[in-house]
């Protein structure tokens, strides 16, 4: 233990470790991580070629494919390696927050109608298909332009672009490196929410902890209604990840790289296949930004239909959009030297501090908004980036509460009818295409989001700003 929220697995714990593992968690959250392969996976990550400083484990971490979900690894931009498993299957899965100028009193009487409208307008569910169809040629434009493609096609407002990480577009996307099968899946699923942990939630501001940050985000105080959207790159990104995991296995065999776990599969940045992956990964990231932007447009439309007013007068502004499964080229200080590094954030949110050039001017005095959803029955947090996060976690913070219970265990424990009744008695309405998903996503299947927010705050990764609580949830 370094302090009550910082722990370390020293570099000499295993012969092949290149750097220590840094864990940011309370003792209780750390204890939970000891129950699965989270820490073992983090030790495996610490053996990566070119890894810098430490392999980071965030407070919400749990085991994932190769890398823990809730993990960060920064590798030297020339001598390092990139791992598709260090990004995850749902490339640029992420969260966006919209605000409204409606109060809970305005929304409560229309809540069912509003959820029904959203459910009707935003395609959701397993393998759900979009209302619009794009040609392969157009899909390549989506992959190149990201959120801008959506705005240029009438899905939203020019100013939305200012409130998204990277402006909703990674410029080095190369759709030529994306397989035909990924494109086929993508063409059918653009503008869809998906299923499982993806959701669209109407929230009410529960508590404000940082008035200045809240004000910068247009959050007036308790009772204000907000919208939280969580989805990613759908089948397009999933296929990119699967394709390149297979390719990386071949690269490793060719380069004679031996790994402690084959799920960690990576290739040296100098390899052509890794450059191809980066072009494909960025295409999927841009797809996801376009996807969340289109969904935003339909959410605005739903509010307009219910309230009979345009969404501008309803104040439906984008507060911020963050990615939490991505690899980015950034500059960070390591041992007093500024270095270019590829930062893998797998189930991790960028958390850049006040003053950072990458933070939009509207938030530059308070820090980048960090969005941490909890569960459909408990709450979610809006935090802001801190200077200390740059040194501690390569400017990263938690991305959720993190799973506590397996999907199978949740299904054994809960019955759909009882769960919906329980949520409704707490004032939370659910609209879902699959009863099974609702049960798998029961609030107690996730860790305590307040404990995760506290650990994130006290570890100096991000600062608590606003707590939200759910009013209505659309699940796929
Ligand atoms: N507010 C809500 N949060 C939810 C819901 N379902 C899941 N979650 C949280 O999201 C994070 C991120 O999930 P991931 O798939 O990207 O790892 C997860 O850790 C949960 O805490 C929901 O319905 N509402
Ligand atoms: Mn996802
Ligand atoms: Mn996600």
TrEMBL record:
Cofactor: record remark: Binds 2 manganese ions per subunit.
GO terms for MF: GTP binding; metal ion binding; RNA ligase (ATP) activity; RNA ligase (GTP) activity
Amino acids binding Mn(2+) 2: 230, 324
Residues noted as binding GMP in the record, renumbered to the chain: 197-201, 324-325, 373-376, 380, 399-402, 475
Any GO BP: tRNA splicing, via endonucleolytic cleavage and ligation
Entry protein name: tRNA-splicing ligase RtcB
Names of required cofactors: Mn(2+)
Catalytic residues, chain numbering: 399
Positions with a binding annotation for Mn(2+) 1: 90, 198
